[in-house]
């Protein structure tokens, strides 16, 4: 069986009617609300509904109420990070025309992780604001390096070469992270769970500090949605339609880097969300990035919130980090995409 990831001939995306898209949007919002309520009500500790109501009213007089109160910022963080990774994955797949593009697979997430760990060990970083600047620089550096390596040789930056370059960067950067942390047991103990990816250490103040970076990244991605639609037809066609290919690539890539860097600074490297979510959304609403990007954000929030709940419930009284749960969910999807015959760029 042969599998190719080379760019496919330009094709027109099947359009979904506005009513159908509206139905899926309302349904996704309803599922997100339900997932958030479930995240607050269920966790490693069993609590009663009276404790849930009391905690939502601001009371923390009992251990159960305090446990529920601690789940609120955790739930918000899971939704924010999931939305960022879902949208970033859709943008990266659109930019590279590669169905396997994902912030973790392309090395962007691990570039942020390496930068953050370097800042912690060598520069004494201890705040979310410091993390996010290093994470964004690391994400940008990894993205540029991935594109440079993928552009070498005949044919330029093909989807297959970009995927291979990203896989090599991921392996190299993850090894460097381990090499930096292993001699520093104090830092290793503090951040070993952060490396896996999780939202257990959430607090409202930290999320608010990073939120402006996430909003700016989302805005940059959304304003390039029409340009991403043009790029799906090929660079020559996009240029013929009056689209500035370079501007679209720079703005969309910058938005994806901001989203990946800020999300990694908050929750560590979480994989497969940016891979699974855009594919699921395209099946429901089509390929129009003007709808795909916000829908991917909502679906990513749902996926990460539900994954966090599953990790807390199945391992009671302990818990499984959300990065492990998303890997369990995403790995089969990744294998299925790779095994598809004649896999084509988007």
UniProtKB/TrEMBL annotation:
<feature type="transmembrane region" description="Helical">
    <location>
        <begin position="131"/>
        <end position="150"/>
    </location>
</feature>
<feature type="transmembrane region" description="Helical">
    <location>
        <begin position="162"/>
        <end position="182"/>
    </location>
</feature>
<comment type="similarity">
    <text>Belongs to the binding-protein-dependent transport system permease family. FecCD subfamily.</text>
</comment>
<dbReference type="InterPro" id="IPR000522">
    <property type="entry name" value="ABC_transptr_permease_BtuC"/>
</dbReference>
<keyword id="KW-0812">Transmembrane</keyword>
<protein>
    <submittedName>
        <fullName>ABC transporter permease</fullName>
    </submittedName>
</protein>
<keyword id="KW-1133">Transmembrane helix</keyword>
<feature type="transmembrane region" description="Helical">
    <location>
        <begin position="21"/>
        <end position="42"/>
    </location>
</feature>
<feature type="transmembrane region" description="Helical">
    <location>
        <begin position="202"/>
        <end position="223"/>
    </location>
</feature>
<feature type="transmembrane region" description="Helical">
    <location>
        <begin position="320"/>
        <end position="338"/>
    </location>
</feature>
<keyword id="KW-0813">Transport</keyword>
<dbReference type="InterPro" id="IPR037294">
    <property type="entry name" value="ABC_BtuC-like"/>
</dbReference>
<dbReference type="Pfam" id="PF01032">
    <property type="entry name" value="FecCD"/>
</dbReference>
<feature type="transmembrane region" description="Helical">
    <location>
        <begin position="72"/>
        <end position="92"/>
    </location>
</feature>
<feature type="transmembrane region" description="Helical">
    <location>
        <begin position="292"/>
        <end position="314"/>
    </location>
</feature>
<feature type="transmembrane region" description="Helical">
    <location>
        <begin position="104"/>
        <end position="125"/>
    </location>
</feature>
<keyword id="KW-0472">Membrane</keyword>
<keyword id="KW-1003">Cell membrane</keyword>
């Amino acid at each position: 069986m042969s599998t190719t990831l080379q760019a496919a001939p330009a094709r027109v995306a099947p359009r979904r009617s506005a009513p159908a898209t509206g139905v899926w949007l309302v349904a996704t919002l309803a599922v997100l609300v339900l997932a958030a309520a479930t995240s607050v009500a269920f966790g490693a500790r069993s609590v009663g509904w009276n404790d849930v109501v009391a905690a939502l009213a601001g009371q923390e007089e009992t251990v159960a109420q305090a446990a529920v109160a601690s789940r609120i910022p955790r739930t918000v963080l899971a939704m924010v990070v999931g939305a960022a990774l879902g949208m970033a994955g859709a943008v990266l797949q659109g930019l590279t025309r590669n169905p396997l593009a994902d912030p973790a697979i392309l090395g962007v997430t691990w570039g942020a992780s390496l930068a953050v760990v370097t800042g912690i060990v060598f520069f004494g970083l201890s705040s979310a604001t410091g993390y996010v600047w290093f994470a964004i620089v690391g994400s940008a550096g990894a993205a540029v390096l991935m594109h440079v390596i993928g552009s070498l040789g005949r044919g330029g930056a093909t989807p297959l070469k970009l995927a291979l370059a990203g896989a090599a960067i991921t392996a190299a950067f993850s090894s460097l992270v381990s090499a930096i942390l292993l001699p520093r047991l104090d830092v290793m103990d503090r951040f070993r769970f952060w490396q896996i990816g999780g939202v257990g250490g959430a607090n409202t103040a930290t999320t608010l500090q990073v939120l402006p970076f996430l909003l700016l990244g989302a805005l940059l991605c959304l304003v390039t949605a029409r340009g991403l639609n043009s790029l799906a037809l090929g660079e020559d066609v996009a240029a013929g339609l009056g689209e500035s290919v370079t501007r679209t690539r720079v703005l969309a890539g910058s938005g994806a880097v901001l989203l990946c860097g800020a999300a990694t600074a908050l929750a560590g490297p979480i994989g497969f969300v940016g891979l699974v979510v855009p594919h699921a959304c395209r099946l429901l609403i089509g390929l129009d990035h003007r709808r795909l990007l916000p829908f991917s954000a909502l679906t990513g929030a749902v996926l990460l919130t539900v994954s966090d709940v599953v990790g807390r419930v199945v391992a009671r009284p302990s818990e499984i980090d959300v990065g492990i749960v998303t890997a369990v969910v995403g790995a089969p999807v990744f294998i299925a995409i790779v095994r598809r015959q004649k896999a084509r760029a988007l």
